[in-house]
Amino acid sequence: MNQAALIPCDILKQPSDEKYEESIRQFQGCPTVAITPKGKIFAGWYSGGTCEPHMENYNLLIYSDDSGKSWSKPILIIPSSKEKLIHALDIQLWTDPSGAFHVFWVQNNVTPPSEEMVPHGENQPAIQVDGYNFCDFEHSEWEIICRNPDEADMIFSEPRRLDKGFLRCKPLILKNGNQINFNYDQMSSRYGYSMSEDGGKTFSRYYGSEKIKTFFDEAMAYETNDGTIRMLARTSVGELAESSSDDGGKTWSPTMLSGIDSPDTRFFISRTPTGRVLLINNDDRNSRTNMTVYLSEDDGVTWKYKRLIDSRESLSYPDADFYNGKIYMIYDRERCGAKEILFLQFCEDDIISGTNVLEPILISKPRMKTVGECHA
């Protein structure tokens, strides 16, 4: 029963079920953040069950309308479905240039233990958790859109499937108006992405250069001042990979190591409203420690400014957005241990001058007993 590409998981609005309460969560992580045109902050992440993957996993969405001082309870839950045998995972948030608010998430198929567990690729291990087989890496990317996100009565579109793949970053809008979603394909040896030339109405699938070893590409990109698209990607060799396109994403240069140290985890990169390039990354080749913010004034050739945000262990999956001269950042710590979702807002000058105290705040921390560490 392969329905992950055909049927969306339920969208639960203002859920009242106690199983979604923060206090009982035993796992949470992989957060994302987006800001609306009037400054409403949305945050989302992946929770439920005891680990990832798990058939109790769900995506959640909360918001703050007071600049992050207080946060709502979940206003949306997108749960996995045991009945449909669909696993829901990895929410991603984005406010597009028109001000519309997008909620993306990933679905894949699972099988019950009565069926043989066969991995779909020699480099992708099949996993069995609590009687369900997670052996499908043909992920499907779904989205819903809200065009009035600053209003109290938010109206979301019906779910639609965008394409195959796994989107773990905000889409990139090029200078020519085209949109690139770096929804990667775990089954391919090349970096995969989708492109729209009609404002996100339709997408075409493309593949770039050969990957450097990784299970999770999680590529991100920005457009340089001369129109080149520079893509960086996660690897398992201690550095980010990179490839570039000078024809709007149709063809790509051979993949090479970027010289940017990074453990095998997600990073964040984007051009800021001032024109600088922002990189948020674990400043370590082997460990998810030292969450660090970098700023470049030369299109990412060098990183003149650098500031350590958090030096603890098990820090991962930074995401960020921009509003009114500030950078809003979110990341996780110890998904199955401390289970912390951390939030921080700062200005570019805080990174350049290094003077103001930057203190991340907890926006979620369940009080359950820890069950050990887990991460992708």
Number of strands: 29
Largest sheet: 5 strands, antiparallel
What would you call the shape?
globular
Low-confidence stretches: none
Structural class: mainly beta
CATH topology category name:
Neuraminidase
CATH top level label: Mainly Beta
By DSSP (H or I, 4+ residues per run), the number of helices equals 1
Name the strands of the widest sheet in spatial order.
Answer: 1-5-4-3-2
CATH architecture: 6 Propeller
Q: What distance separates the N and C termini?
A: 26 Å
Q: What would the average pLDDT be, to the nearest integer?
A: 94
Order of helices and strands: EEEEEEEEEEEEEEEEEEEEEEEEEEEEHE
Percent of residues in helices comes to under 10%
Number of domains: 1
Q: Which strand-content bin applies to the residues?
A: 35-45%
Kindly provide the radius of gyration, computed on alpha-carbon positions and rounded to a whole number of angstroms.
Answer: 19 Å
Give structural notes.
The protein has 376 residues and is mostly beta strands. It has a single domain (12-364), classed as Neuraminidase, CATH 2.120.10.10. It contains one helix and 29 strands. The chain has one helix at 348-353; strands at 12-13, 28-35, 41-47, 58-64, 76-79, 86-95, 101-109, 127-129, 132-134, 140-146, 160-164, 166-167, 172-173, 179-181, 183-184, 190-196, 204-210, 220-223, 229-233, 239-245, 256-261, 268-271, 277-282, 291-296, 305-310, 315-323, 326-333, 340-346, 361-364. The strands form eight sheets. The chain has a five-stranded antiparallel sheet, with no helix packed on it. The protein has a four-stranded antiparallel sheet with strand order 6-7-10-11, with no helix packed on it. Strand 23 (277-282) and strand 24 (291-296) form a beta hairpin. It is globular and about 55 Å long. It starts with 11 loop residues before the first strand and ends in a 12-residue tail after the last strand. The mean pLDDT is 94.
